[in-house]
Every structure is written in C-alpha cells, then in structure tokens.
C-alpha cells in the first residue's frame, strides 16, 4: 500500500517503452549534467555536501509518501524536484533527484534501469531547470518580497511537473510507443491537474519553512547559477513550445513525420542490414522458430528446476546426516 | 599521561548573540570519570562539541595535551571519542562494519589494520557478530553499543558521551552501564540519568545557563537538596 | 513502528545471491538492453528471454510466483501504449465506431502493443531478481564497480540509511494527522476542509520533514567530523571479481547476443 503513492502516475517510464536510441541519448545528456553538477556542488556546499544531500534525498523520498485526497480516489502528492531546487540550489538538486530516482529504479522497479537516464532527465533535470528558471524570475520580478517565495514556489513546482510530463510524452512518441497526438495532450492535461498538488504542497512546505527556519530558504540563493542553466532552460522551453503543437497537429504525430521523412525507418533498420540476407539454417520460417524457441525455453527452465531440486535433495540429505551425527 | 581535558574561560555565542557558554573552566585528570548534568538548554551539548573543535568559541580548550585548534583537529579527533545522543546520527553508514571502520579509515590506517580495529572494537561492546548487519534493523540498545564501538575503533584516550542511556529499556540501560564501567578511558558523560551518575561517576559538574554551577564529589552534590532544586534536578 | 518492508532484499544463500554484485548488475543491464534492442514481434527471441529470466528466478530460490506477483508494476504504463492498436498502419483486424469516430484495430498495432508489454515484463522481472538477491551494501559496491562517482555512491548510501529514519517520521506525522481527523457526528457535515487547506496541511508536513532532514544533516556532519571526516569520500578498494564469474558473465552476454541476432533475423 505504501508503494502505490511512491509512483506519481505515468511519470516513471519502465524499461521496454523507450527505443534504445532515445534511452541512450538521454543517458548521455543526463550523465553530462550529473558530471557538471558533481563538479559545481563541491564548490557550493563544501564538506557538508555528502550528509546534507544524502539526508535531503531521503527526506524527498520519504516526502513522496505524503499525499492528500483530492477527489474520486485520486490524490495529490510530491515529486520534490522544485522543493529540492529552492532549498539546495540547482546543482545539488540534480544530484539529489538522481539519487532518489536511481534508488527507486534499482530497488523498487519504479521506472526502468535503461530508462533511468530518461527518468532522471524528465523528473530531475527538467524539473530542476524549470524550477530554477521560474522561481528566480518570479523572485526578481517581485523584488524579492516574501510573497514571491510562495507564488514562485507554487508556479515553478506546477510547471516542473507539467514540463516533465510533456517531455515524457514526447520521448514515448519518438520511441514509437504511443501516438503523439494522443499522448501529449493526455499527459499534459492530466499533469496540469496533478501539478497543482505539487505546487500546493511545495508552497505549503515553503510557508512552513519561512516561519520556522527562514535561513534554510537562503541556501539555494547564495550562488547565482551560471549562464549554462539559463541556456538549458531556454532550450527546453523552446523545444516544448515547438514540438508539442507540431507533434499533436499531425494525424499520427511525430512518428508520422518521422516515417514520412524516412529517417525513423532507416535509423531502426540500419544495424540489421549488416547481416546478409539469408535464412537461419534449419529454420524455415518464423512460426517454426517460435515453436523451437518455446521448446528450448521450456528445456532451459525445466533443466534449471530439475537441477535445483537435485541439489536441494543432496543438501538436505547432508544436513540431516549432520544433525543426526550431533 | 596526556589524556586530560582542560577548559579555561570558554565563551560561545550563538549567531543571535545569546551566550550558550559563559566562561566555562574545569580540569579533568587522567582516568577520571566525570558526569555533566544540568537542565535542558544548559549548554551541555554545546560544551561537548567544543572538545574536538566542531564548535569553536573564545577561551582555551586543551585535550590530551593538544590545544583544540584547526591544525590539531586530526590528532584531537583521534584522541577524543565523541558519541552523540541519537544513535541514528552516529551510525550513518550502510552497515555496522562501515560505521566502525569509518574513523580508522580517516586515520589513514591500512585495510588490515582497520579490520583488526573493527573486530577489537566490536568485541569490546560484545557485538562481534553484527559487522555485516544493517544499522536500521537493530534495537536502540544495540545501536548505542555500536555507537560506542565506532569511537573505540579509533582507540581514543578520552570518551565523551551525550546521554548514553536515553531511550533505553531497563535491561539495555543496565548492560550499557556495565559496559561503561569496564572501559578504561577517561570519561565525560552528559546525562539526565542521576541514578547512573551515582553508580558510575565519582565526580560531577553541574551546568546551568552556560556556566558551571557546581563541581565536586558526586555523592556530596547529589545530597545537596538546595543545589539540585536550584538547577531543576531531582535527587535519585 | 519501523519501516522494514521498504527493503526489497530477500535473504538467501542461492547461487544468484552468491554472485558478485557487479556481475549481477552488468548482466541485468545487458539483459534489459537486449530486450530493448529486439525488434517488435520477435516472439521466438522473447520466449528465450522469458526462459532465461524464469531460470534465474528458480536459481535464486525466490520462485517464479514471488517475482510475478511483483512484476505488475509496469502494468499501468501499458495504457500509454494502448492507442497503438488503432494508430499503427497495417492489416485491419476489425473496426468499431464510437459516436462520429471509427476505430480500426490493426494486426501490426496489436503486435507492437504486446511486444512492448512483453519486453517491459521480462525487463522488470530481471530487475526484481537483482534487487531481491543483492543487499543494499552490495549494490553500492556494484555501483562503484561500474564507475559511478564515489561522491554519488556516498550520497546514495547515506540516503538509504536515512530513508528508514525519515519514513518512520513520516508515518508518525501521518498518524498524528489521522488521529486528529475526526468526522463530525452531524450527518452531511463536510469533512476535511477544502482541497487547498488539505494541501497546505500536507505541505506543512513536507516542510517539517525537510526541516528535520536539514537538522539531521547538520548533526550527521558533526558526527562524521568527530571521526575525522574531511569532505573527501574514502573507502577500501573493491575486491577483484572471481575469474570464473567473469567467464560466466562473458558466456551469458554471448547467449544474449545470439538471442538478439535470432530476433533480428526472424523479423527482417
């Protein structure tokens, strides 16, 4: 029961839903961002970084258990990227979200392992960049007055979820897993609502901290971020702005576009042309191959099961002998 | 012969200006076992954090013959084993072994030496079978014993413990007192557990409002009703 | 009350439990990559992957049923791929109308949906076996072994340690909230305040949790410093992977490559 609220609906992509190109491409982007963050965070936080980020990551993980009923059995809950960014600054927040999502994937299969790069990108990096961008902008526009903390926190948290969902839908569409003209409006629409929960909880958390520990709200502000993060924010915003309507306006979305251009088909088939055109020796067609595979598979599993049973029998025999000997 | 604690006129102010420590002075001789008692907020924990330089105030703190200043931190921290109140703060590593090995690794010992130290320390607290275990599955009593092992592995000359019996059930408390009795190190124990103080520690420092209110023989102090009442303590 | 059930590790002494964690992690990743690389509709190859994952489940002493019960996690996500049965062009199977729309289910669409679901299903099973047969400290070793930076591994190690502590605190907060969330005996009286109010209460708990996190972080830093921590993450070097396990891993990867080639050849 506790696991259910750990996974905000439709955001942690499992393995098998992304094409290898998309999954690996996003892994590369994610690794680069993590590497930069690792370098920057040492300068920002100093020797306190390991305990601080470790415990904040644990707090975010535990905080994702918090939920509140909205209506009709659905509930609002926390992803935490926005809160982490506002409290720790963007670089530490990227690392914290990486750890949270990594542990969720590795231990609870909440999101796949090959898809982890994409999930860190969608929920960690995009969330952090959007939050940093929006929160700083609202804070600056409002002249740093206290209300800008809550408005900025709410807006940035809400947008971080919406943008993350849109990018997730885009990746699924590009992978040919889901039609873009359905996925993007659907994911976007649902998360415009789900994001409200994130926004309200984030603003509520900031209100609590503003009263009890206002000093904590300043950690993320100490170091102004470099121009890199602004550029990244701009790139992501432009990508969403261009890709979303483009993707949903065509009959079968991006996939259709890609197929029209012939590039997806080529990209997918390229490696297979390396193997020359001949039929698998002894196996004439696919149906036969499937049957053979079924038989081989059954033999493998049966063999292992039999082997275990045999080994167990021996082991328990020895154990009994020892017990008797005593 | 250097395992002593000398504190002279130590003053520490919080960032908001209030005095947490307001001119503390005392001397602890080698092998002495001393209690540090006083109400919550008296400054006991703050004082303890000065003994290995985690906090630094004005005045002089000398531990095991070394002044507690930045260039001596590594040696001071090896000489003073500081055990914090909450074992969940003290035990921060994934396994018991990692936690007990942490100090020796940072002392720069070889892997073989570290393994010997860990095994000796766990033996001393009778938790030798727990090395591969994960800390969060242990009872409070077990965690407290392992917390002590995490500093014993550094082979300190002085042990400083914050509330070692807090949160323990009667049996766990009894076992812990037994363990503390057997350890040979110079000891300073901050606690509210005056029964333990009476049983284990011949000398007592009473702290209140950032000052040392009384310093002397435990039995004499614990029989001074006026003193105990003045500092919110109860006769055991 | 303690949150023991968060830990997916299942104690055991099976062959899979005894494998070096690095070998297990690399094999799991290779398996998942193979599943992802297989083209849609390569059923023969899929069955062989399933046979491998079932065998591993048997070898691990977990049993197939144990893993299958936990493998339903990806199910809601299949919904995202569901529209494919209408949108992938191909041989029409049947069509039906909802209001003004006519939807046609195609053979290729169904094949692609089932392929995605199947790939995800075998991948998640292998990941479950990894998590259930490898203790967290071993997983940390595996992470170091495949080159994840020490700093990140140290953060993950600390995070794991304190998830349990903070999850206990969350449960206490939730219980305190539940204990004070009484309903009025008056019939029809609205319960629980507005959604915004509920969100604010929950937000307050999140803020409370973050504050406790920061304060604990400070105390842990003090405890680490007291034992000589200087900001640099240090650990013992990892022991070498036994030769026989290297060979086993190599063999397993070759088998995966063969299955991959079979799948590709069959669907060209």
Tags for this entry?
heterotrimer; A: 326 residues; mainly alpha; Arp2/3 complex 21 kDa subunit ARPC3; 2 domains; two-stranded antiparallel sheet; elongated; disordered N terminus; disordered C terminus; B: 236 residues; alpha/beta; Rossmann fold; six-stranded mixed β-sheet; 25% strand
Percent range of helical residues of chain A? over 70%
Question: What is the helix tally of chain B?
Answer: 10
Radius of gyration of chain B: 17 Å
Uncertain runs of chain B are: none
Order of helices and strands of chain A: HHEEHHHHHHHHH
**Strand residues, percent of chain B:** 25-35%
What is the molecular shape of chain A? elongated
- Beta-strand content of chain A: under 5%
CATH topology of the largest domain in chain A: Arp2/3 complex 21 kDa subunit ARPC3
Q: What's the helix count of chain A?
A: 11
Q: In the CATH hierarchy, what is the architecture of the domain at 5-92 and 156-230 in chain B at level 2?
A: 3-Layer(aba) Sandwich
Give the oligomer, counting copies of the same chain as homo and different chains as hetero. Answer: heterotrimer
Q: Overall pLDDT of chain B, averaged?
A: 91
Secondary structure: elements and pairs:
The complex is a heterotrimer of chains A (326), B (236) and C (268).
Chain A: H1 20-45, H2 49-63, E1 67-71, E2 74-77, H3 81-88, H4 90-108, H5 116-141, H6 146-174, H7 180-212, H8 227-249, H9 253-261, H10 263-269, H11 286-325
Antiparallel strand pairs in A: 1-2
Helix pairs in contact in A: 1-4, 1-5, 2-4, 3-4, 3-5, 3-6, 4-5, 5-6, 5-8, 6-7, 6-8, 7-8, 8-9
Chain B: E1 5-13, E2 19-28, E3 33-37, H1 44-50, E4 58-63, E5 66-67, H2 73-79, E6 80-83, H3 87-90, H4 96-106, H5 111-124, H6 140-152, E7 158-162, H7 170-182, E8 186-190, H8 194-200, E9 203-208, E10 211-217, H9 218-222, H10 225-230
Parallel strand pairs in B: 3-8, 3-9, 6-7, 7-8
Antiparallel strand pairs in B: 1-2, 1-4, 4-5, 9-10
Chain C: H1 15-18, H2 21-37, H3 43-59, H4 64-70, H5 75-81, H6 84-87, E1 92-98, E2 101-106, H7 107-133, H8 136-145, H9 150-179, H10 195-226, H11 243-267
Antiparallel strand pairs in C: 1-2
């Amino acid at each position: 029961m506790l696991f259910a609220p750990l996974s905000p609906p439709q955001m942690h992509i499992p393995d098998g839903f992304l094409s290898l190109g998309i999954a690996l491409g996003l892994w590369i982007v994610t690794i680069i961002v993590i590497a930069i963050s690792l370098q920057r965070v040492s300068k920002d936080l100093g020797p306190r970084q390991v305990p601080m980020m470790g415990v904040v990551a644990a707090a975010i993980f535990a905080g994702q258990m918090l939920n509140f009923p909205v209506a009709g059995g659905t509930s609002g809950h926390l992803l935490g990227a926005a809160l982490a960014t506002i409290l720790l600054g963007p670089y530490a927040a990227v690392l914290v979200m990486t750890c949270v999502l990594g542990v969720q994937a590795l231990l609870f299969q909440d999101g796949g392992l090959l898809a982890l790069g994409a999930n860190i990108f969608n929920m960690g990096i995009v969330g952090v960049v959007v939050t940093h961008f929006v929160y700083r902008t609202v804070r600056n526009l409002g002249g740093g007055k206290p209300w800008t903390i809550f408005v900025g926190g709410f807006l940035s948290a809400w947008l971080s979820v919406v943008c993350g969902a849109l990018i997730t839908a885009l990746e699924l569409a590009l992978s040919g897993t889901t039609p873009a003209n359905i996925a993007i409006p659907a994911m976007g629409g649902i998360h415009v609502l789900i994001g409200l929960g994130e926004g309200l909880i984030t603003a509520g958390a900031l209100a609590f901290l503003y009263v009890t520990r206002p000093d904590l709200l300043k950690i993320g502000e100490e170091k102004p971020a470099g121009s890199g993060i602004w550029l990244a924010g701009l790139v992501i915003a432009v990508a969403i702005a261009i890709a979303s309507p483009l993707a949903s306006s065509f009959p079968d979305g991006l996939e259709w576009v890609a197929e029209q251009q012939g590039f997806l088909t080529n990209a997918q088939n390229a490696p297979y042309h390396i193997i020359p055109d001949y039929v698998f020796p002894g196996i004439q067609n696919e149906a036969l191959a499937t049957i053979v595979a079924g038989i081989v598979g059954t033999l493998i599993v049966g063999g292992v099961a039999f082997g275990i049973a045999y080994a167990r029998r021996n082991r328990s025999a020895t154990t009994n002998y020892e017990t008797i000997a005593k | 012969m250097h395992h002593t604690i000398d504190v002279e006129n130590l003053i520490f102010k919080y960032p908001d200006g209030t005095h947490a420590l307001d001119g503390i002075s005392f001397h602890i001789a080698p092998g002495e076992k001393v209690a540090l008692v006083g109400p919550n907020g008296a400054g006991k924990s703050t004082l303890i954090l000065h003994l290995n330089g985690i906090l630094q105030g004005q005045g002089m703190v000398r531990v095991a013959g070394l002044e507690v200043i930045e260039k001596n931190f590594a040696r001071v921290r090896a000489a003073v084993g500081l055990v914090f109140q909450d074992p969940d703060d003290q035990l921060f590593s994934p396994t018991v072994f990692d936690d007990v090995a942490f100090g020796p690794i940072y002392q720069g010992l070889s892997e073989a030496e570290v393994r010997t130290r860990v095994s000796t320390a766990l033996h001393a607290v009778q938790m030798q079978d727990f090395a591969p275990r994960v800390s969060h599955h242990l009872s409070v009593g077990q965690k407290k014993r392992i917390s002590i092992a995490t500093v014993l592995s550094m082979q300190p000359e002085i042990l400083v413990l914050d509330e070692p019996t807090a949160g323990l059930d009667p049996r766990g408390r009894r076992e812990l007192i037994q363990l503390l009795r057997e350890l040979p190190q110079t000891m300073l124990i901050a606690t509210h557990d005056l029964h333990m103080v009476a049983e284990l520690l011949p000398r007592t420092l009473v702290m209140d409002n950032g000052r040392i209110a009384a310093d002397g023989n435990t039995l004499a102090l614990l029989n001074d009703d006026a003193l105990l009442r003045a500092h919110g303590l109860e006769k055991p | 009350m303690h949150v023991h059930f968060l830990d997916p590790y299942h104690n055991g002494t099976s062959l899979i439990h005894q494998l070096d964690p690095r070998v297990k992690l690399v094999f799991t990743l290779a398996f998942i990559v193979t599943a992802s690389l297989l083209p849609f509709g390569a059923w023969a190859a899929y069955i062989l992957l399933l046979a491998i994952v079932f065998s591993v489940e048997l070898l691990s002493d977990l049993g197939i049923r144990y893993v299958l019960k936990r493998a339903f996690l990806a199910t809601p996500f299949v919904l995202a791929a569901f529209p494919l049965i209408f949108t992938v062009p191909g041989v029409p199977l049947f069509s039906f109308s909802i209001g003004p729309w006519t939807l046609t289910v195609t053979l290729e669409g169904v094949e692609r949906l089932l392929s995605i679901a199947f790939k995800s299903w075998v991948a998640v099973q292998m990941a479950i076996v990894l998590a259930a047969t490898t203790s967290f400290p071993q997983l940390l070793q595996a992470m170091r072994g495949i080159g994840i930076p020490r700093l990140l591994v140290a953060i993950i190690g600390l995070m794991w340690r304190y998830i349990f502590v903070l999850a206990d605190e969350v449960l206490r907060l939730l219980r305190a909230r539940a204990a004070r969330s009484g309903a009025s005996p008056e019939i029809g009286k609205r319960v629980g305040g507005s959604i915004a109010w509920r969100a604010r209460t929950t937000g307050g708990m999140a803020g409370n949790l973050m504050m406790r996190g920061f304060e604990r972080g400070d105390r842990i830093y003090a405890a680490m410093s007291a034992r000589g921590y200087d900001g640099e993450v240090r650990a013992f070097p990892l022991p070498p992977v036994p030769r026989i396990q290297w060979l086993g891993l190599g063999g397993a990867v070759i088998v995966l490559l063969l299955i991959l080639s079979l799948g590709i050849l069959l669907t060209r």
